[in-house]
Design brief:
CATH class of the largest domain: Mainly Alpha
Strand order of the largest sheet: 1-2
Helix content: 55-70%
Strand content: under 5%
Radius of gyration: 25 Å
Number of strands: 2
Number of helices: 11
Structural class: mainly alpha
CATH architecture of the largest domain: Orthogonal Bundle
Distance between the termini: 120 Å
CATH superfamily of the largest domain: Intergrase catalytic core
Order of helices and strands: HHHHHHHHEEHHH
Oligomer: single chain
Length: 281
């Protein structure tokens, strides 16, 4: 090879190795927090946030320049409040600094009024389902119905399997975060029927064309496309907004039940008072 050929040879650019969230490095980070006087509750929160981030990172799961900015944008697109996003990015910043890579930090802080996800109404939710039916889009119909009727974080969607639908519940999370998500019976019947028509005999129900589990980007994109067809603001088309609709509905029902309990106890006391009231002269 002559000199000219050497000059024309392409120049290789070495990719940054990056930082991963491993169990060993996470343990060391949390121990450093403990040594600096952080409370057990704070340390547990750091672990939860970093484990959540590790599950959400795309590709090889490494943190490099720009990774935390992408993570922040993803959280905002899912409807998380700026305060929540700031907390999660702060945990990530502390971790990469501990690992000796302050250059990977994201230092911009969101202002409180930015990117607040609007509320999806119950009427809009029903309209989304009706639109999906008209368009014969069963998968997105089931996605909307699932997130509006179960306390399910979008990253746990692969846990919604045929087996979970048959049992009426799914187990999500790990360790202390492990919990059971109940699924409505009518939704389970639809999920099982969908699996039969889709040729799914086991495992995750929501798959891509390549038969791999849908990720959060694919889920959000599908729901927002449905929002466009239903003429509902795209910013309402996120699993987060649907989940908030479920939680708001659940709280309203629980509040009503609590009020009925108080009324029943009051009636019981009044009835007993008729026979055992303290008599005065």
């Amino acid at each position: 090879m002559d000199t000219m050929e050497l000059r024309r040879a392409p120049r290789l650019v070495k990719r940054e190795q990056g930082v991963a969230v491993t169990e060993d490095s996470l343990r060391g980070f949390l121990e450093s927090l403990s040594a600096n006087g952080r409370t057990p509750e704070t340390i547990a929160r750091y672990r939860q946030e970093l484990e959540r981030m590790a599950r959400a990172l795309p590709g090889d799961g490494m943190i490099r320049r720009g990774t935390l900015e992408q993570y922040r944008d993803m959280l905002l697109s899912e409807g998380y409040a700026p305060r929540t996003v700031n907390i999660r990015i702060s945990a990530a910043n502390s971790y990469v600094a501990y690992m000796g890579h302050v250059e990977y930090q994201l230092r911009d802080t969101l202002e409180a009024e930015k990117a607040v996800a609007p509320e999806l109404t119950r009427g809009e939710y029903i309209h989304l389902l009706q639109t999906a039916q008209l368009l014969q889009r069963e998968r997105v119909y089931l996605l909307v119905k699932l997130f509006a009727n179960a306390d399910l974080p979008v990253q746990e969607l692969p846990k919604i399997t045929l087996e979970a639908a048959q049992m009426g519940q799914a187990v999500i999370g790990e360790g202390k975060s492990r919990r059971i998500v109940r699924l409505p019976r009518c939704l389970c019947r639809e999920l099982v029927d969908y699996a039969g028509r889709s040729g799914i005999k086991e495992g995750p129900l929501f798959l891509t064309r390549e038969r791999t589990p849908m990720d959060r980007t694919g889920v959000t994109s599908s729901i927002r496309e449905l929002c466009a067809a239903a003429k509902i603001p795209a910013e309402k088309g996120s699993p987060r907004c649907l989940r908030r609709l479920y939680l708001a509905g659940r709280k309203a029902i629980e509040d009503n039940i609590a009020m009925l309990v108080e009324q029943a106890l009051e009636r019981q006391t009044e009835e007993e008072q008729l026979s055992v009231a303290w008599e005065t002269a």
